[in-house]
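Section 5.1 Outputs to date
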Amino acid sequence: MQLVFGLFPVFGDAVLHKMSPLALVGFRMLLGAPILLVFAGVLTRPLPAARDLLALALLGLSGIALNQIFFAEGLLRAGPVNAAILAVIIPVSTLIISTAFRHERPRRAQVIGIVVAFLGAAVLVRAERLDFSNTETVGSLLLLCNSPFYSAYLVFSRPLIARLGALPVVAWAYIFGAIEALPFTAPAVLDVAWTSLPVWAWASLAYILVGPTIVGFWLNAYALKTVTASVVAVYVLLQPVIGSFAAWVFRDSPITVRTLLAAAVILAGVALASGIIGRRARIGFEGNRAG
């Protein structure tokens, strides 16, 4: 799952040389929604209850429409490396939302980890000399704002998945998200000269449609059937490794010392917040005691 999401910044950055972010988002939604609708068998199932439809509409707005628009706009300005690294803020924002709505109880290490992760994000977005005329800074801020929308999707989709099933929830969220984003994406989609796109652009679009749009969201939903949202979010830690390496290899995107420092701080914070560091320390202690 993290492999298909981790490669998305690389393919998405390539496509954004040929179309606007809103056009890319429109492509994903307008093709992804009907495909997921057919795969999920939504047309042959009873209509969800009104309460569930409202919840699905809110999921579509947060996890599909706003999430994808902020991500694509940020990717265009900040590049694939920053997009991959800032994805690790998702476990932190997921934990904050889960705690705020009493899905989980925070530990002291988690609070410290959240603070550390946000300090790392501040390093990456150059908070000490924040300049909104700097394109990369604005892009990083857009990517940072994207995380809570996706985190909300992870947290609030779990009870719906338990009632309605993994694929139907993804399909309904995509349907609502596509409709909600249509006023913004439709003009951008119509502006693209689709017939003149090169083969590599179509190949990238095909990957984006099949990988992160259909397979990635379905695997996410399947994982949420068995584990909590914060556990699913922790595996986002794999994305910066995959995305940054792929961006360096395929897109020749530079990885600066500041980027590496920010990534290290963010990863340390997320490891604290998710309990990875504390759990490893306990395992080591217990192993030494047993020996």
